[in-house]
Design brief:
Distance between the termini: 76 Å
Oligomer: single chain
Largest sheet: 2 strands, antiparallel
Strand content: under 5%
Number of helices: 5
Strand order of the largest sheet: 1-2
């Protein structure tokens, strides 16, 4: 028999204990936005976000066992990748930092997923570059030429459709007449 103050917690955390965070009454996304504001508007990587969200302010430790393991694993992988980049560069001019996007990839591959969510980070859209990445440059002349080509194709298709409708109407109006088979040019893909 259980006492009133006992609680049975069924978790799939492989013995890592109860899920603990230090977010208070804000979401992980809100914390990410606040951290970006503190970082001159630049978004922070998921590793920094997890460390801030789960580190106990009094002890300076991550209380959640699963998150602590993930953070340690990701930090090790980031350090390994940075040191590998530095050893590949003979002049030792390699950057000591990985890109935010690369760190987020490492976090995503290391964090367990449950019901479409990254444990500790919630539902996140990934597999695309961050929205802060600049769009690829395309020469305006190329875009103008592509637009003109599309306009020409649309005009040709509309003309073909009208001609076909006229032929069908003429055949209905004059069923005994024989009309020459008019072949319309096909629209070619560029």
């Amino acid at each position: 028999m259980r006492g009133d103050d006992e609680c049975v917690l069924v978790t799939d955390r492989k013995g890592k204990g109860v899920f603990k965070h230090n977010l208070g009454a804000q979401s992980i996304a809100t914390l990410g936005d606040r951290m970006a504001e503190e970082n001159d508007g630049e978004p922070v990587d998921d590793l920094a976000l997890m460390k801030r969200a789960y580190t106990n302010k009094k002890t300076g430790q991550i209380d959640d066992g699963l998150v602590r393991e993930v953070v340690t694993l990701v930090q090790t992988q980031v350090q390994d990748e940075v040191s590998q980049l530095q050893t590949e560069d003979d002049d030792s001019t390699a950057s000591t930092n990985l890109s935010r996007f690369r760190i987020n990839e490492i976090v995503e591959s290391s964090v367990p997923k449950k019901k479409g969510r990254l444990v500790g980070l919630g539902r996140r859209t990934r597999s695309v570059p961050p929205s802060s990445a600049p769009p690829p440059f395309v020469d305006p002349e190329i875009l103008t030429a592509q637009l003109k080509n599309k306009d020409d194709r649309i005009s040709l298709l509309e003309t073909q459709r009208l001609n076909q409708q006229m032929m069908e109407m003429m055949q209905r109006m004059y069923p005994n007449e024989v009309f020459p088979n008019v072949v319309f040019p096909n629209v070619q893909d560029p």
